[in-house]
Amino acid sequence: MSPHGIITPRTEHFEVKNVRFYNFDFNNAAALGSCSHCFHGAATDSGARTITFEGLEFFDTPRKIRYQYPWKAIFYDRDGSLTGQGAHSFATPYQKHHEQPECQFSEEVIDEFDGITCDPSVQVRRVAFHSPAPGSLFAGMVMRFIRYDDDFFGVMSNETQ
Length: 161
Description:
With 161 residues, this protein is mostly beta strands. Helices cover 7% and strands 25% of the residues.
């Protein structure tokens, strides 16, 4: 068994407040998990729900988060008690495009949080498209986003776009 203390739901804006986790230090256990009832592809959930955390305490709990399928979640830390990055920080599963200067993604951070943590200077948000037209170019496509940089895009012309 690799238990979780709390597995978050498949809905937006669930809140976890004033919870203490003790002795989650065995068999890959973790205090928090994501997306209840999304354990396989047939669950048809796109994930990346925003869950808010506040007032958490961890005792003998080396792994705070272990995400579940579809490995997309946004854990918003209202007071810094989850990430240690201060109020209004984020934790989310690791993806290469998440490697940004405001985020920590060292091996130790990935082991403890099963992903990355980002300081309050950035925001992690869910992007979802509902009811696309049949034959849409986005059908079945994985989407990635890059940082917007005015210095880069501001000098582009019609020829360089």
